[in-house]
Amino acid sequence: MNATGADAASSWPAVTFEQRPWESHDTAGQSRRAALRARGPYQASIPPSIATLALPALDMDTMIAAEDAVVELGRFDGEVGAIAAPFSAILLRSESAASSEIEQLTASAKNIALAELGRSAGRNSRLIIGNVRAMEAAIEMAEQLDGSTIVAMQAEILRDDQPEDTGGWRTQQVWIGGGFGNSPHGASFVPPHHERVGALMDDLVEFARRTDLPALVQIAIAHAQFETIHPFTDGNGRTGRALVQAMLRRLGATQNVTVPVSAGLLQDTRGYFAALTEYRLGNVQPIVQSFARASADAIVNGRQLVADLTTVRARWELATTARARSSGRRLLDVLQRQPVIDSNLAAGELGIDSRNAQNGIDRLVTDGILTQMSAGMRNRAYEAREVLTALDGFAARAKRRR
């Protein structure tokens, strides 16, 4: 970045700080020295109000990258939306898994599909399914974006494992990184005191609902402001990236599918987190650059996933002996978005009884399209291994660091 660009981009107001009292109530197991370091007042941030601010002048390369990203997002959305295949659900699940992985929550495509089926697959898989629900809620409520819809997004993430942390803005101090024992002293960043959160989120929603700003610049700033406020006790990162998808839909950058932008962010998490830090110092440019790069990377990876799944479906059409409109043939569409099934799920998806659904499954097993996951006759589940391989390939590409 040239000096002129850096100076212009730094005209955004930085967070300020205020001193707040702190009294630690949990010093069990701490040394006397650690307990002393966790006592006394601490510095909590005060993010600026941004609802009516004019944007800083970003350098030309950054603005071009941001505008190009919006064009490419629209092109990808149109391309995939025109294909008669369930790619919207596939890409939404992929976005949810990538967003969760940024928070160190990882699971294989098989375990995520098992969790969707209601089978035991581990806590991470359950949390990723919660993130799928949050992304779905974000898109569904994009036009009504306000504080209550953001609260609803976060509730979907945590409702199965931490319902006590849902239902509204946080009512306690939180901090990011470090901290001495159970206190914010020495943390990497201390978000605002909880008494400020409601007004700050009202201000953020007003900014997010504006229609006079370049789309990707607005989205990047709104996301960074959200993460700076950190309005919840948990689930902030995943909710903040669900907010990105809501804004992409609200601003018209996407209309048909969920572009897995988090998969692009995952390729350079160090740069992403550094850009959030720069935002708090008053420099908007890095977070805009991060989202422009992430969007471009996500489109490349998403196109590869779509191509891989299209190839799989073409092979299935040649391999299957199921008749047109039979349960087996109709299950091929289901398998692309739900690659682990049982007879109950198949029956529900096709609107038929479980016996006919099982007949369709058996046909696809014979054709080599489905594989039974365990021996025995009760509670049988089946996997479409080629789809799982394609989804795991997408995840592996997203994790390749720059």
Question: What's the short version?
Answer:
One of its GO terms (molecular function) is ATP binding. The chain has two domains: 60-173 and 193-304, Orthogonal Bundle (Fic-like fold); 320-392, Orthogonal Bundle (Arc Repressor Mutant, subunit A).
The number of helices is: 17
Silhouette: globular
Low-confidence blocks of residues: 1-6
**Beta-strand content:** 5-15%
**Overall tally of structural domains:** 2
Q: In order across it, which strands form the biggest sheet? A: 5-7-6
Give the structural class.
mainly alpha
Domain Fido: 145-293
Pfam family, one: Fic
Protein name: Fic family protein
Region (Disordered): 1-40
Write the layout of secondary structure elements.
Blueprint: H1 3-9, E1 16-20, H2 32-37, E2 42-46, H3 60-81, H4 87-102, H5 109-116, H6 123-140, H7 147-158, E3 176-178, E4 187-189, H8 197-208, H9 215-229, H10 236-250, H11 261-266, H12 269-280, H13 285-319, H14 327-337, E5 340-341, H15 343-350, H16 354-366, E6 371-372, E7 382-383, H17 385-398
Antiparallel strand pairs: 1-2, 3-4, 5-7, 6-7
Helix pairs in contact: 3-13, 4-6, 4-10, 5-6, 6-7, 6-10, 7-10, 8-9, 9-10, 9-13, 12-13, 13-17, 14-16, 15-16
Pfam family, one: Fic
Region (Disordered): 1-40
Organism: Subtercola vilae
Protein described:
- ATP binds at residues 234-241.
- This protein is mainly alpha-helical and 402 residues long.
- It folds into 2 domains: 60-173 and 193-304, Fic-like fold (Orthogonal Bundle); 320-392, Winged helix-like DNA-binding domain superfamily/Winged helix DNA-binding domain (Arc Repressor Mutant, subunit A, Orthogonal Bundle), CATH 1.10.10.
- It is built from 17 helices and 7 strands.
- The strands form 3 sheets. The protein has a 3-stranded antiparallel sheet. It has a two-stranded antiparallel sheet with strand order 1-2.
- Strand 3 (176-178) and strand 4 (187-189) form a beta hairpin.
- The two termini are 19 Å apart.
